[in-house]
Amino acid sequence: MKHDCSHDYFAKAKEVIPGGVNSPVRAFKSVGCDPLFIERAEGSRIYDADHQSYIDYVGSWGPMILGHCHPEVVRAIQDAAVNGASFGAPTYKEIELAEMVCEAYPNIEKVRMVSSGTEATMSAIRLARGCTGRDKILKFDGCYHGHADSLLVKAGSGAATFGVPTSPGIPADFAKYTLTATYNDLDEVKSMVAANKNEIACIILEPIAGNMGCVPPQPGFLEGLRELCTAEGIVLIIDEVMTGFRVAFGGAQERFNVRGDLVCLGKIIGGGLPVGAFGGKKELMDQLSPEGGIYQAGTLSGNPLAMSAGIATLKLLKQEGFYEQIEEKSAYLEAGLRQAASKSAIPTCLQRVGGMFCTYFCEGPVNNFSDASKSDTEAFSRYFRTMLDSGINMAPSQFEAGFMSVAHTKQDLDQTIEAAEKAFALL
Ligand code: PMP
């Protein structure tokens, strides 16, 4: 593969954009090569500025579950654009998408649209604090919920990749309200809740942790948190920005049959356009302005282009057999990668839930961030570079998940497995 054009663009970008990118992990900094600049994408493939194609498992970090440029989604965006890009006034499309979200999640009675996952979690936390009159929040090490101040404490994703899980710029006075616990350790959460009796507004978590690779909840973990929150008057916020409409139409909550008081969504509900949402029971949601006093707003919230892309996407996901197809393709890839990984000279551990997966370069299982941190990130980087050179685009960090789309063909999957055999053998 040649990267002359991407290389030149990156040099230029670094002069006018911090680190050359508008979101840190895109810089490929931890994998020892320059990032690809992308020109276009279609189906399972993306095309770089040097006109080479790659089988894509990043999928814009999750939203592209239909594959890139699905004709019906493209048409919906085009049709919306000719009627006006933004009005700053309510539209019928917002009702349509809200109804679809409420139908998919029985615990969402009302939902408010925002423009990113960060806004969704940040707003849900404000609502939880406002409703309970409590200041503290509890999150889990290695979970990422966007870059709001109170959430960049022991965070996953890029924050973990670059070794700054708690960012400078966050006053200690803010960070002290964020308690952090070990993912999958219910006893630890219970003792933290007991030590902070009547002080914790909410517990926020990824129901499957996708920002430290792919860590499923252990049996009883989600159920235990639900019970604890109910008993202690704590708002349980389930952050399904990544898992929502991915691991089932009703997300991880449908899959594991545990329900949050508030739910955060993003990625897939925008079909690739900037969208987030948070919703839950009426009693909580009605405390938002203008009904209640808890303020939250957005110039582009409910944007008609984004709503149209989301509606078109969700309609396609509702079709009979959609999630079975994602499962089948993902299981096929998993089996092939496991077989390929058996040729590796160093231990590997593959974890997957539905269409999200990760290979760690250590003994498994990986149940929390401390386990994930044992992965040999040097080996990951070598694996990543060999895969990229074979035309496979994976997330450029150990602490991210891979995403399957319905557009991936058997040929794509076989080509990926073949490339992985080579990459594992070279380790
Ligand atoms: N929550 C989760 C679980 C996420 O994975 C992400 C982004 N990867 C966010 C929140 C933040 O979303 P955004 O990047 O759209 O702000």
Automatic annotation (TrEMBL):
GO-annotated biological processes: protoporphyrinogen IX biosynthetic process
Localization (cell): Cytoplasm
A molecular-function term among this protein's GO annotations: transaminase activity
EC assignment: 5.4.3.8
Recorded metabolic or biological pathway in which this protein acts: Porphyrin-containing compound metabolism; protoporphyrin-IX biosynthesis; 5-aminolevulinate from L-glutamyl-tRNA(Glu): step 2/2
GO cellular component: a single term: cytoplasm
UniProtKB keywords: Cytoplasm, Isomerase, Porphyrin biosynthesis, Pyridoxal phosphate
InterPro entries, A to Z: 4pyrrol_synth_GluAld_NH2Trfase, Aminotrans_3, Aminotrans_3_PPA_site, PyrdxlP-dep_Trfase, PyrdxlP-dep_Trfase_major, PyrdxlP-dep_Trfase_small
Chemical reaction(s) catalysed: (S)-4-amino-5-oxopentanoate = 5-aminolevulinate
Cofactor: pyridoxal 5'-phosphate
PROSITE patterns registered for this protein in UniProt: AA_TRANSFER_CLASS_3
Annotated SUPFAM superfamilies: PLP-dependent transferases
Pfam family, one: Aminotran_3
N6-(pyridoxal phosphate)lysine PTM positions: K267
Family assignment from sequence similarity: Belongs to the class-III pyridoxal-phosphate-dependent aminotransferase family. HemL subfamily.
Subunit structure: Homodimer.
PANTHER family (UniProt xref): GLUTAMATE-1-SEMIALDEHYDE 2,1-AMINOMUTASE, GLUTAMATE-1-SEMIALDEHYDE 2,1-AMINOMUTASE 1, CHLOROPLASTIC-RELATED
Protein name: Glutamate-1-semialdehyde 2,1-aminomutase
Organism of this sequence: Desulfuromonas acetoxidans (strain DSM 684 / 11070)
